[in-house]
Amino acid sequence: MEDHTHYYKSMEPNYIAMGRLLHAWDHVEGAWAFFFETLLKDHPLSQRTFFASSAFSAKANMIERLLEVSPISERERAMNALERCNRIGRRRNDVVHGTWIGVDASNTIRVAIKKDHDDTSAVAAAYISKKDQKLADRAYDADKMLKLADEIQALAEEVFAISENLRRANAQ
Fold it and tell me: In this predicted model, what pLDDT tens digit does every residue of 84-112 receive, in sequence order?
C-alpha cells in the first residue's frame, strides 16, 4: 500500500484555511440571521424563515426586501454590508466549490471552476508564472483563503454591530 502521508502533510495548511473560511461564513450567516430577526422584531418564526433556504442569495433577497420597507436608520449601512457579503460570498463559493490542484510537491491550491470543462491546469500555470493575473486570481492558496476568512469575519462583526444599533434604537 502506498504511503500518502507527505500529501496529507502538504495539504494541512489548506485544510486549516478551508475550515477557518467555512467557520467565518457560518458566523456571517448567523449575523445576518440575527439582523433578520431584529428587523422582524424578534418574531418567533424569523429564524425558521431565514434558514428555510440554504442558498445565501435567497436569504439576501429576503433581507433586501425587508430593508426596502423598514424605516430604519441603518438601512444604507446594512445595504452596503449586504452587497459586500454577496461579493464575498461569490469568492467563498469559488473556494468551497473549487477543485484542488497540486502546484508542486509542497504547495496545493484551490481553483475556482467557472465551467464544467474549465482548464484547471491553465489556472495553476497562471498562479505559478503570475503572467495572467485574471486567471491567477481564481487560485486560492492557504494564505489567500485565510485573508478571505478574516474579511468574512470582519463583515460578520459589522452586521452584528448594525443589529445591536437597531436593537438599541428600538428599545428607546
Answer: 999 999 889 888 887 777 665 556 677 76
| Placement of cell 491546469 in the chain | 121
pTM for the whole structure: 0.81
Would strands 139-140 and 99-104 be described as parallel, antiparallel, or unpaired?
Answer: unpaired
CA proximity to 128, closest of 158, 157, 97, 107: 107
The answer to whether 152 touches 28, Cβ cutoff 8 Å, is yes
Q: Looking only at Cα atoms, what is the longest distance across the chain? A: 69
Q: Are 32 and 159 in contact (CB under 8 A)?
A: yes
Say which DSSP state 32 is in: H
CA 41 from chain centre, in angstroms, equals: 26
pLDDT tens digits, 44-62: 888 889 889 889 999 999 9
Per-residue pLDDT, 13: 82
